Amino acid sequence: MGGGFKDTVSFEAIYTEAISLIATIYGKGDPHYQRIIHFYSQGHLHALEQTEGLLKGTKSNLESGLIDDLKSKVLIDIKSDFIESANNLLSEGEKDSAAVLACIVLEDSIKRLAAKFNVNKAKDKELNVAAGALLRAGVIEKSTNQSIQNFKNLRNAALHAQWEEVSVESVTLLLTFLPMFIEKHGL
User: Fold this and answer.
1) Cα–Cα distance for residue pair 110/114, rounded to 1 Å
2) DSSP labels for 26-47?
3) pLDDT, tens only, 145-183
4) Are residues 92 and 181 in the same domain?
5) Which of 22, 63, 150, 176 has the fewest Cβ atoms within 10 angstroms?
6) Phi and psi for 167 in degrees, rounded to 5?
7) In a shared domain, residues 89 and 133
8) Can you give the pTM of this predicted structure?
9) Distance (Å, rounded) from C-alpha 181 to C-alpha 187?
């Protein structure tokens, strides 16, 4: 290994670190990972230069917000899983558990939207107050704010285990609202 490099230990150390970084950042199924493995197997100076270019590109991507993009994608995936689980629970007659999951997604989405747009008046506030602050800041429309306000009672009932106040209809409405809200605002 090392393609004629005398310092094979350094060569291996460089590639071990580079491969590990690329696998962690992009995943083993990503073309960047496949390219760095190819460069490693080439074992010559040009391949090492190509690896340097790939790492510089990755650094630039990280500085340009790649981590934020990845975090956003992961959060959307997690929220989608919560919504899917809530829909499954609801279809199995478990409206209370479905309501809790849906309300958690709603609350988290509102707080993240406020943070995304630096609406500090929404920070650490009740759902309805946070939504009102987002409306005043021009982040959400009046109709969206009204929808969120309508979910306030469901949120309070679900998160305070007042199950008699949780209805299948209100949970269904929230589960219909959430995917559109999340997609529209990139949450």
Assistant:
1) 6
2) H-TTSHHHHHHHHHHHH-SHHH
3) 999 999 999 999 999 999 999 999 999 999 999 999 998
4) yes
5) 63
6) -110, 150
7) yes
8) 0.67
9) 8
